[in-house]
Amino acid sequence: MALPVISKQKMNDYLKEPGELAEINEPVRKTYYKGNDLLMKSRPNTHY
Description:
Elements: H1 8-21, E1 28-34, E2 37-43
Antiparallel strand pairs: 1-2
């Protein structure tokens, strides 16, 4: 028997609670390339 698979959204919901309890509230940084350019974006970490 295979284990049940949950959606990414449901996993994110499950991970939010321990993050809030641990008071993890640093900005979220995303780094990626667009062609040869290195792009970095940062946004506040929001808990809903």
